[in-house]
Structures are given as structure tokens and as C-alpha cells.
């Protein structure tokens, strides 16, 4: 079971500069654990206190995971996952 | 240093003035590694707020897919402050996630929606460190 995960510029320090890596997992949570096993440190940038960080967006096949179960969102072979930090700020 | 053409500069200022008193935001994309801000893209501030901005998550994905397909990257990430100076706030610094981008801040605090000068400044924000840089406005990018 292989799922392609697109990695944003800011997190490519964890993937030796790779823009996309392959990972496995039946849920987003399991996928992130698998990512962590191969790219140590990346999990902390995605998850805080057991939940997805507020300003990190994750999409499965173009759907924001917040609308399809968050970390429990289900994955299947061939799915495409995109990680994008929010573009946000405030005075 | 940020080198920007007059038309793009004017477009950023016009957007900031139009959306005042809410914060305006957007990017200027350019070929990867070129440092050339070529393609101006206004974004909607999903927060619709005078004190916060955030790209809508669906728009964000669309934008990055488009840039990916064009081998582009965000050369400028801009937003406005409508009541405070054109300097990155603590929130701006904490959420700055594009280490290669020029972060442009425009302040409309003085003239709001009306004609008149704005503060227009550019910064690098890397690992929480803010460095202001000079801006060169040129008639067209060479």
C-alpha cells in the first residue's frame, strides 16, 4: 500500500529535499506515524497535543481532511496526500 | 533586496486600499528559484477581519497546484495591516512558513480606502528571525 505525500518547502528538511515521499497507513494518523518512522521530526510539525495543528492543512485527494474525519480520515492505495501550511497572520 | 515592477506594486497597494478596514492578502508567483515576482494573485481573506488574514484552505490548495504545474513558487506573500505599522506582528512571524518568500506588508492605517501614500515594506522571515530588506521599484522586470 503506497500513498504519495506532497511535502511543502518548509518541511523538506525532513525529507532530504524531496518534494514528495511515499508512505503507508490506513488512516491519516497511521500515515503520519509511518512518515515519522522514515523522516524523524516531521510528526511534531504536523500534530500538536494529539490533533492536527491549526495552521497546517492536509488534503486527501483534494479534500481538506478537517471535513472528512481529521486524523481518522481513511486512506487507500493510490490516494494522494498534500500537506500545506496555512498562509495566515494577523496584526 | 526585493525588486518589483511598478504595476505589481500598484496592484498590491490598490488591493490593500480596497479591502481596508479588513486585511488584504495575496501572493506574487514567479518561476522557481528566479526571485522574479511575475504573476500577481489576489486572494480572499477567509478570516474577513481587520486583525487577521488567512487564505481559504480550498483556494490555497488550488493555488499551490497551479504553481506546481507551472514550476512556480510564491516569490512575494503580501498582506496589509489596517491599524498598525507595516511590520510583521508576532503572529505573522510565528505563521511565516515560506522561507524563500519576500513578506511584503502594507499599512493602510493613515489613509484607509482613500488616495494617499501607504507604508510598503518587505521582510525575510526565517525560523522566527525578521530581516527587513530594501525595495527597488522598476518600470518593468528586466
From TrEMBL, chain A:
A Pfam family of the record is ThiS
InterPro entries assigned: Beta-grasp_dom_sf, MoaD_arc-typ, Mopterin_synth/thiamin_S_b, Sulfur_Carrier/Prot_Modifier, ThiS/MoaD-like
Q: Which residues form the signal peptide?
A: none
State the source organism's domain of life: Bacteria
What name goes with this protein? Molybdopterin synthase sulfur carrier subunit
Amino acid at each position: 500500500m503506497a500513498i504519495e505525500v506532497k511535502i511543502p518547502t518548509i518541511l523538506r528538511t525532513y525529507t532530504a529535499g524531496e518534494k514528495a515521499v511515499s508512505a503507508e497507513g490506513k488512516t491519516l494518523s497511521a500515515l503520519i506515524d509511518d512518515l515519522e518512522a522514515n523522516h524523524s521530526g516531521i510528526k511534531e510539525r504536523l500534530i500538536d497535543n494529539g490533533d492536527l495543528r491549526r495552521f497546517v492543512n492536509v488534503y486527501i485527494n483534494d479534500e481538506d481532511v478537517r471535513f472528512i474525519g481529521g486524523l481518522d480520515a481513511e486512506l487507500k492505495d493510490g490516494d494522494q496526500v498534500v500537506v500545506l501550511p496555512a498562509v495566515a497572520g494577523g496584526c | 533586496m526585493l525588486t518589483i515592477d511598478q504595476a505589481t506594486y500598484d496592484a498590491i497597494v490598490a488591493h490593500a486600499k480596497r479591502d481596508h478596514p479588513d486585511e488584504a492578502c495575496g501572493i506574487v508567483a514567479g518561476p522557481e528559484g528566479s526571485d522574479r515576482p511575475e504573476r500577481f494573485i489576489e486572494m480572499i481573506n477567509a478570516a474577513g477581519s481587520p486583525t487577521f488574514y488567512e487564505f481559504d484552505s480550498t483556494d490555497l490548495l488550488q493555488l499551490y497546484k497551479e504553481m506546481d504545474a507551472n514550476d512556480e513558487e510564491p516569490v512575494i506573500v503580501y498582506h496589509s495591516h489596517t491599524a498598525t505599522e507595516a511590520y510583521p506582528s508576532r503572529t505573522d512571524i510565528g505563521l511565516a512558513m515560506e522561507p524563500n518568500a519576500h513578506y511584503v506588508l502594507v499599512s493602510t492605517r493613515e489613509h484607509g480606502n482613500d488616495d494617499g501614500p501607504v507604508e510598503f515594506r518587505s521582510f525575510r522571515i526565517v525560523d522566527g528571525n525578521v530581516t527587513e530588506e530594501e525595495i527597488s521599484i522598476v518600470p518593468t522586470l528586466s
